[in-house]
Specification:
Layout (H helix, E strand, L loop, with lengths): L1 H10 L5 H12 L3 H8 L7 H10 L4 H4 L10 E2 L9 H16 L7 E6 L4 H4 L3 H15 L15 H14 L4 E6 L3 H14 L5 H24 L8 E7 L7 E5 L4 E7 L3 E5 L2 H13 L4 E3 L5 H16 L2
Parallel strand pairs: 2-3, 3-4
Antiparallel strand pairs: 1-7, 2-5, 4-8, 5-6, 6-7
């Protein structure tokens, strides 16, 4: 039974079989026909191959084998977002393909409770996205050298992946964001700190500031429409009335559900465990009780929120 569950996960990894075959050939160093024989169940994956795929794709063998040790397994995939390896790039492209695939399921829902601007929004603004990568590098890089903002260089491939991700995320049929009430205040304070220690120049600060104002304009348009203007897919924006100590996310689809806890700036620990995901969804929906919806319904709160954020940014 566990092998059937494993095969189902493998078969659903990529929307197109040709993509799945190509990735399996590379991961397992197999010829094309050998991969097809395994996918047709003519030949089983070896134990070594199962372990290789489980490690590469963060598949919990305990869960699919039904092993119950009284604990729920969370996993983490680390990616170097500044200088991604080939494996990192393959993983990021897989994420983008998976997100784009969700457009085929109208009931798909993405929900993000966040105390910092999420990647879904940052990806569309080059200087703002670069600043968040710079901050991440400054906090978590093992390199002892202090590198100023001006020395941060993103490869053409990384920029292309970021653009693809920015387009793909807007294909999700239903999205909910709940923002910490001081989400832009925290961002401004971070920028001010790096300016104070001369790692960001006045000119660079102005470029980042311009991006933040552009993002606020875009978010206000999304809030007015209640959707992404590019795709018309539903977006609900909420402002929490309580501080959000840590970020949480879930993605619910007809095929698979997954929940995330955001850690270390750019990473997530995540689980497919059905009971845990159900709890996450319930807990996160309850957060709406202590939040104000500013998209579509509450014009006064919407105007006040965006006016306050612009005043913060203008004071940068």
């Amino acid at each position: 039974m566990w092998y059937e569950a494993f095969m189902k996960i493998v078969m659903n990894k990529y929307p197109k079989k040709t993509q799945l075959v190509q990735v399996l050939m590379e991961l397992l160093s197999l010829e094309r026909e050998a991969v097809y024989r395994r996918l047709r169940n003519e030949v089983p994956f070896t134990l070594h191959e199962v372990i290789t795929l489980s490690t590469a794709w963060n598949i919990s063998l305990d869960e699919i084998m039904g092993v119950n040790i009284g604990a729920i397994t969370f996993q983490m995939r680390t990616v170097n977002y500044l200088s991604p390896s080939e494996e990192d790039v393959d993983f990021l492209r897989f994420v983008i393909q998976s997100i784009a695939y969700l457009k085929h399921f109208p009931t798909t829902e993405f929900m993000d409770i966040c105390n910092k601007l999420p990647r879904q929004l940052l990806a569309g603004y080059s200087e703002l996205n670069k600043f968040c990568l710079f901050k991440w590098m400054y906090q978590y890089s093992n390199d002892n050298e202090t590198i100023p903002y001006s020395k941060i260089r993103l490869s053409k491939e990384k920029l292309k992946i970021t653009e693809e991700y920015h387009r793909a995320i807007k294909l999700v049929p239903n999205t909910n964001f709940i923002f910490d009430p001081k989400i832009f205040y925290y961002l401004i304070k971070d920028i001010q700190y790096f300016c104070s220690i001369y790692l960001i120049s006045e000119e660079e600060k102005e470029l980042i500031k311009k991006d933040i104002l552009s993002l606020l304009d875009y978010l206000q348009e999304v809030a007015n429409l209640g959707c992404y203007p590019e795709t018309q897919n539903k977006v609900n924006l909420y402002i929490s009335q309580l501080k959000i100590p840590i970020g949480y996310t879930y993605t619910a689809t007809p095929e698979v559900n997954i929940c995330y806890v955001h850690v270390f700036g750019k990473y997530e620990i995540f689980s497919y465990h059905s009971a845990m995901v159900a709890n996450f969804m319930s807990w996160m929906q309850l957060k709406k009780k202590t939040s104000t919806q500013i998209s579509e319904v509450d014009i006064k709160s919407r105007i006040e929120f965006f006016s306050e954020q612009r005043q913060l940014v203008e004071g940068l």
